[in-house]
Amino acid sequence: MRTDIYGGLRNALQRGVPLEQAIRSFINAGYNEAEVREVAKQFSDGALSITAPVTIPTKTPTLKVPESQEAPSIQNVKRRGSKKVIFLIIFLIILVGILISTIFFKDKIIEFLSSLV
């Protein structure tokens, strides 16, 4: 018996989900239908005692955002990101240009630095 299926079905039943709906959920999630139904038989035969659904009171926090402060839109975030990418590409092109220049003019650069010493 697969303990993950057993635990999931037991959890669902404890929360008050109908057995057939829990079975369908496991099958839709990609579990083998035969294995799910085999484990579910233990619940439907009454071989195991299932406690009544437990209701846990939850208090959902509410976040109040003033109207003047709105979350940045996706477009603004993308624009900021694209500006960074453009800057980095330009910086990379400049660095590659400097590298190529030093390779072509290495003799003159060495001569210049030698004259300074």
Topology diagram in text:
Elements: H1 3-14, H2 19-28, H3 33-44, H4 74-104, H5 106-116
Helix pairs in contact: 1-2, 1-3, 2-3
Describe this structure in words.
- This protein has 117 residues and is mainly α.
- The protein has two domains: 42 residues, no CATH class; 43 residues.
- Helices cover 65% and strands 0% of the residues.
- It is built from five helices and no strands.
- The longest helix has 31 residues.
- The termini are far apart.
Would you count the extended β strands for me?
0
Percentage of residues in strands: under 5%
Low-pLDDT regions: 47-55
Structurally, the number of domains stands at 2
Task: For the record, give the distance between the C-alpha atoms at the N and C termini, rounded to a whole number.
Answer: 82 Å
Q: What's the pLDDT, averaged over the residues?
A: 80
- The Cα radius of gyration reads 33 Å
Main sheet summary? none
Helix/strand-derived category reads: mainly alpha
- Relative helix content: 55-70%
Supply database-style keywords:
single chain; 117 residues; mainly alpha; 2 domains; 65% helix
Entry summary:
This protein is mostly helical and 117 residues long. It has five helices and no strands.
